[in-house]
Amino acid sequence: MARTSDPVEALRAVDLFAQLSPRSLEKVAKRLKGVEHPAGKDIAVDGQEGAAFHLLRSGSAEVVVGGQVVRTLGPGDYFGDLSLIDRKPRSATVRTTSEVTTYALVAWDFTPLLDSEPEITKALLLVMCERLRSAEAR
Fold first, then answer.
1. What SS3 string covers 40-107?
2. Are the beta carbons of 54 and 101 closer than 8 angstroms?
3. What's the CA gap between 8 and 62, in Å, rounded?
4. pTM score of the predicted model
């Protein structure tokens, strides 16, 4: 994804939100908050309750599972999509490896949209179904 300071365009590049109408994307984007994180910070911690989705605008981070780095994240990458919906504990730790700026979306700001905007709820269900089918096919 190309770096963008436009939250609507940033969301449009995320599979979870890509199928939303411009109106629905705008509704989600209005709930985003820009958050700055210093290098070496754990933004998410394995086993702790998760309540936010983060979309990296700048910087880099690593995903750590069982003490092993399993992935590196950069601008356009995201995490916390499952916790945004179910608020269950995190399945990995995400640690910044440089200064990072994210768009953050917290569950208590997002959940009311799921209740009031059927288009958003349906789009999320379709993406989750696609992910499940893909995982089952492996």
1. CCEEECCCCECCEEEEEEECCEEEEECCEEEEEECCCCEECHHHHHHCCECCCEEEECCCEEEEEEEH
2. no
3. 25
4. 0.88
